[in-house]
Amino acid sequence: PWETERLWQEMFRSGFFPADTVYSGITGTFTAGETLSVGECVYLKAADTKMWKAVSGAGGTGLITAEIMCVAVAAEAISAGAAGVFLLQGFITSTAFPTYAIGETLYLPEAEQTSLNVPEGAVPDSTGDFVQVLGWASAANTIFFNPDFTIIEHA
After folding, report:
1. Collapsing DSSP states into helix, strand and coil, what is residue 10?
2. Cβ burial 113-145 (10 Å sphere, 16+ → b, else e)
């Protein structure tokens, strides 16, 4: 509680942010189901236990499924079928990210933008889209990834 708050305050006061294409936080090693770039949003597919790209427009059924629930972002470039590091919670910096506004809330993208499936600042707004908050921007190309598993469907 207060120790965590004090730690965060110290990190911000000291200017702690990772350098280009690095990450800091809770990670796990999984196998990629498809080729992934740094920062791409993924879900864990139960059928093959691999990480696949997650987008908010994959639903439309009225049911929350694993395919639209982002659980991590790729912490490195990973080839299809290869094991790689995924950030489950924490900071990640990448030059592949769009330029974010500091403090901006980030969401699971509606679709890939410029061939990348990275968090975006625009709230998914099409009927049937699922809205999931993924974190916030701490710098123009750095995010604090902290996925919220409360997901709503845009009507």
Report:
1. helix
2. eeebbbbbeeebeeeebbbbbbbbbbbebbbbb
Vertex 94, ends 78 and 139: CA angle to 5°? 150
Q: Phi and psi (nearest 5°) for 41?
A: -75, 135
d(CA 101, CA 122): 12
Contacts 24+ apart (CB under 8 A), 138-141: 138/17, 138/91, 138/102, 139/17, 139/93, 139/100, 139/102, 140/99, 140/100, 140/102, 141/20, 141/93, 141/94, 141/95, 141/97, 141/99, 141/100
**Cα 84 from Cα 33, distance rounded (Å):** 11
User: What are the tens digits of pLDDT across the range 32-63?
Assistant: 999 999 999 999 988 899 999 987 765 544 45
**pTM across the whole model:** 0.82
